[in-house]
Specification:
The chain is of the alpha/beta class. It is 51% helix and 7% strand.
Amino acid sequence: MSDPTTAWISPGEVLLHVGVHKTGTTALQAALFDARPALRDQGVHYPGRTRSHYMHGLAAIGRRRGWSNGGAVPREGLWTDLVATTARSTDSRIIISGESFCEASVEQAAEIVEALGGERVKVVVTLRPLEQLLPSTWQQYVKAGSSLRYADWLDDVSRGPDAPKPSTPSFWLRNEHGRQVAKWVSATSPDRVTVVVVDPSHRMGLFEDFEDLLGLRRATLQVSTGAQSNRGLSAEEVEMLRMFNERVGHRFDYQLYDHIVRRAGFNAMVEGRRPGSDEATLVVPAAVARVMRSHGAEAVASIRASGVRVVGDLGLLVPDSELDDTLQVAAVDRVPLDAAAILLEGLVEKAFEAIRSGEFGPKTAPLLATITSPRALRRRVRRLGGRVLRRLGLRR
């Protein structure tokens, strides 16, 4: 059982969890959200009403969510309200969690810490091995509208953090782990930064680590039953969405894409099916894994030299498992019919809902009506069916 008197932060102090992405952040934030009443009873404040502070972090660093057509920087008030709430919480131990904070520049990191209370602030960075982050990270980029093929993206990130014109600049901004830790050390001090190494063999380990950091009783944080599934996609599923992005591109308004494609169609597919046993998984070829291990070793050396507090085994960031040089990225040549049907069903249901509610305003309603008209739907279904049959060799 944890003891508040031995917690890493004291009443009035702020624990700023900056990610990084794909280190169990979504599950942790859902657990914190569900446990808000229990947190309050134990003297811990998770401010706001949202599951995470991701949008607050984007507002703090002025980073746009989505592409230029419809995407926007979240309103500044999200950040200033969070700062004001934190300033008023002088009796509680406070936790703020948003992986968008890890994309701050060195200067922005210092400004964020100062705004949240300066010496009141301690920072926690959660890390996993780079090679384990790659499949889920690429999926996340595709969910956000990218049409870059997996093999091409792996080649691109393998060029390293200093390569010119990267296809996804945010990857190394987030995941050059040595520099990530050094950035927050410069904004605070070594004794005010903790690195938590996520151990995949210990399912509840991340929750227990944060219970200890916050001085919570054991089992206060639990796997959320209401959280949306965050399962990995099969190679076929993600390729279908990538091809959709390739055809549609950024012609869609980002808000429309986010609500109808990502939150409705995509989530319907994730929640509504399980990949078949014959569907391929996304793998990391040995050559790419070796590059990631080299970067990981550099990060471990940098973190050890920094003097920060470490929870867990830094050695886990450089796996020593044997690599299979025959492992290759699967060539996807078919699309699961049930996945396509579920994706289309989710798109249509959300589009009709948006039309009825006027969710996107008068300018967007005609576009949605066109997309979801019976004639247009029949045409799209025929095209999709013909494309699938051709891929299966049943039609020329």
